[in-house]
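Researcher: Good morning. I'm working through a list of sequences from a screen, and I'd like to move beyond sequence-only analysis. For each chain I'm collecting a predicted structure so we can compare shapes side by side. This is the next one on the list. No need for commentary yet; just the structure.
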Amino acid sequence: MMMKFRSRLAYAVGDAGINLYFMSTLSLLLFFYTDFYGISAAVAAGIFFVARVVDAVTDPFMGYLADHTRSRWGRFRPYLAFGAIPLAVISVATFTIPDFNETGKIIWAFVTYVLFGVIYTVVTIPYAAMTSVLTDDHDERATLTTFRMFGAFSGAMVVMLGMMTLVEFFGFENGFQYTMVLYGIIGTAFLWWSFGGTKERTDLALPEERISLPNAMKALFRNSPLWIVISLFILGMLAFTFRQTVAPFYFKYTLERPDLLTSFFSITLAVMFVGLICVPPLTKRIGKAATVQIGAIVAMIGAAGFYFNDPGNILMVYVWGCIMAIGGAPIAVLGWAMLADTIEYAQHAHDVRADGVIYSTASFFQKVGKAVAGTAIPAILALTGFVANQVQSSEVLGGILLCIAVIPFIANLALFGIPFVYKLDADAHGQIVRELKDRLSRVSST
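Model: Good morning. Structure tokens for this chain:
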């Protein structure tokens, strides 16, 4: 079933709001902690690690809770309406510098970032799971997810273009806090728009269906396409987080041109929009798995070029960065679209539909990729002798280059290889959906 444009747009703006928070923490929270908040890279690594351990509990629980939610608004949409304001509040707190001693500031950073992760989960797990209940069409899901990624990248663009400019405008002492107040207002409005402008479909699930824990585990662990997609999620997030998080350090300490960071982020994100446009037609022509592989090849070329480039050649820093960015577009779109298809695979094979559980599991492992990068980057910086706001040694600069080029290359190499074993293509999924509809129509008529 083709969705109306306004419904696609309403779903997309939700991710625009979410990415005001996601990109602020992904791209600038470590930089904020080390260079403004005043804690070491090693302590920051500990904060990120603890937050991901908490995610190991909250993500699956949230998915299970969403699957068992019943309301007049559906299973997933209510969490957008009621979670939007708490998410905005905790985001402001996370970027607030309290007037505490060093120990108090460390505790504040631990508590606020962990709580941010919990509330972020409450909103984003149901939001992501909506893909599977908004449409059951294989190609429409790719189109819907492309719209969603346009929203996500638009939110990211606002952060990359505006955050440091706004911080400077408000003053560095409270600039991050005031900027997040502004983003919180916008993010809340966008999530409410997404809630009001979408409608969940129910024709592939029985209204009275409840998912037992054993059946939920069956939908997870006897679902081979799901684990292939999860591995792609991990690798895609790993590559993205490494290059995005370390970029401020590369521009400040390697290039000694921090003034160029905003333009670099903006241009590379704009290039990703071009990549998004190419994904749906390419997917219809060669399939989702092959499109992911093409993206991985392009990203590897960019990473290799970035590694061998002379940092003094600023133009080629932008060129290779753009090539890496455009190569990352297919997995950003198709990971979520492929994930929705695995829900019907499990339903067809095991008679259990577990949208929330499957999405929360994938989200958790995506965060594993983010956690590995988020913990490894400050650890690498600490091990190579990084000291904030100082001239860095060659060892530190080598560690920065490792993070921004070598590790993304390796991740994309694996991202290229794994899709060879993915067999849930458009024909296979279409047959599954037809059989499910026939099966459910027989059940409903008895």
